[in-house]
Amino acid sequence: MAKPVLWSSTFTxxxxxxxxxxxxxxxxxxxxxxxKKGEHRTPEYxxxxxxxxxxxxxxxxxxxxxxxxxxxxYIARTHPAAGLMPSDPYAEARTLGWLGWISAxxxxxILPSFMPSRFTADPAAEASVAARGRERVAEALxxxxxxxxxxxxxxxxxxxxxxxxxGFFFLGMGVRFLKFEPADYPALGAHYARIAARPxxxxxxxxxxxxx
Length: 212
Ligand SMILES: N[C@@H](CCC(=O)N[C@@H](CS)C(=O)NCC(=O)O)C(=O)O
Hints:
About 55% of the residues lie in helices and about 10% in strands. The chain contains eight helices and four strands. It has helices at about 15-25, 45-50, 70-80, 90-115, 125-150, 165-175, 185-195, 200-210; strands spanning about 5-10, 30, 55-60, 65. The chain binds glutathione.
């Protein structure tokens, strides 16, 4: 039987799915698309994932999981030994809460800051849409920084890496990639460095860097 295919793109929200798969040792075929080249808009890709976004996990036989929250949860459920999802109901609910919040942040603020033309029909308004999106990302990062510093981000089971921690890794990545001031986010920076040093995560990030 063919392996499940994880469709992603380097240093995007798909990275969270890649890192969860790496940490779980999931036997996936991981394929990276260039969003710049529009490879997520080809008829072949849209036939598999009509949303035209990454990540998507194609399990074969017409079964496709989209939305990173769902993909991460699926990886955790199918690889329980990795302990990615804490078993305590409160910690699990908090984990899903954080992932849902990050997903909403993507749609409401991160995408508008990158692709303002999708959020206004008026070309003259694009710059202000992008600027407001960026302000909202900054507000969200300040909130995430404070919550992380207060210890409000659950880990995984038995001291393993947790899905919420992968979500916060993505926020730390955002500080770097969106060129915010790292000194304003010391907890996110330390969190990013701690997780990036895990051997499987380091290998996965190295692969993304090689692809570019
Ligand atoms: N709601 C989706 C959002 C995914 C998303 O925004 N993906 C971005 C990359 S970070 C994408 O594919 N952008 C290309 C596009 O929207 O055209 C999820 O949670 O997975």
